[in-house]
Each structure stands twice: as structure tokens, then as C-alpha cells.
């Protein structure tokens, strides 16, 4: 579903049927941080760009809300884990590198 900021996100859900105005992020789920979620977090969230860049079926995303100092700078913190390599994915846009290894020409230093 499209977020209020125009990006596709599989975790965004909005129900506007018959005057309802219910929105939720299904990535944060029903945890405590789900209560702190507002759709403003979608504006700077990395998930739409991660999904666009990497459609790996083995990568799981987890999200939580970072409050920032005195509640300022509230943002989504995204963690990625690969079920196949069983490692934390440091660069979710690229992946862990097991299924699609990075070519050596990109790894050599000049
Ligand atoms: S906060 Fe991020 S993951 Fe959650 S609905 Fe918005 S864009 Fe999607």
C-alpha cells in the first residue's frame, strides 16, 4: 500500500472506508512501539527504498521506533536478517551477498 508520502510499502496499512481514518505500520506490529507510531515516520523510513532495491525472499526486516533526544528526531530503526545465511544484513539494500555475491571488480581497491 502507498504511504501518505507516495512510496509503496508492504507494511503500511490504511483503512479509510466509510469515514474511518485508521493507519498502522505492520512492521512494528503490536509491540509497545506500535503505539508511538505515526504516519510521519514513513517520510524518512528506509523500508520503501530497501524493498525497491532488494526483493530477497530470505531477508526479514524488523523495525522499532527510536525516540531520539527528548523525543526529538523520532525515526524508524530498521534491522535486517537473512534466514539463508543466518546473519545480520549490514546493508539491506544490497543484501548479505550469499545468493548474489558481489563481483571481485567491485571489491578490489585502487
Ligand atoms: S514506517 Fe516505514 S515500514 Fe512502517 S509503514 Fe511507514 S514506510 Fe512502511
Task: Please describe the structure with a list of short key phrases separated by commas or semicolons.
110 residues; alpha+beta; 3-stranded antiparallel beta sheet; two-stranded antiparallel sheet; 3 helices; 14% helix; binds iron/sulfur cluster
Report on this structure.
- This protein has helices at 32-35, 47-53, 104-107; strands spanning 12-15, 22-25, 59-66, 75-82, 87-89.
- The protein is an alpha+beta fold.
- A hairpin with a 4-residue loop joins strand 4 (75-82) and strand 5 (87-89).
- The protein is built from three helices and five strands; from the N terminus they run E-E-H-H-E-E-E-H.
- Helix content is 14%, strand content 25%.
- It has one domain.
- The mean pLDDT is 89.
- Bound molecules: iron/sulfur cluster.
- The site of iron/sulfur cluster has 13 residues, from helix 2.
Question: How would you briefly describe this protein structure?
Answer:
With 110 residues, the protein is of the alpha+beta class. Helices cover 14% and strands 25% of the residues.
Secondary structure blueprint with pairings:
Elements: E1 12-15, E2 22-25, H1 32-35, H2 47-53, E3 59-66, E4 75-82, E5 87-89, H3 104-107
Antiparallel strand pairs: 1-2, 3-4, 4-5
The chain binds iron/sulfur cluster.
SSE pattern, N- to C-terminal: EEHHEEEH
- Count the DSSP helices: 3
What is the CA-based Rg, rounded? 16 Å
- Give the low-confidence spans: none
Helical proportion, percent range = 10-25%
Number of strands: 5
When the domains are counted, the total is 1
Structural class: alpha+beta
| Relative strand content | 15-25%
Hetero ligands = iron/sulfur cluster
Arithmetic mean of pLDDT: 89
Give the end-to-end Cα distance, rounded to a whole number of Å: 43 Å
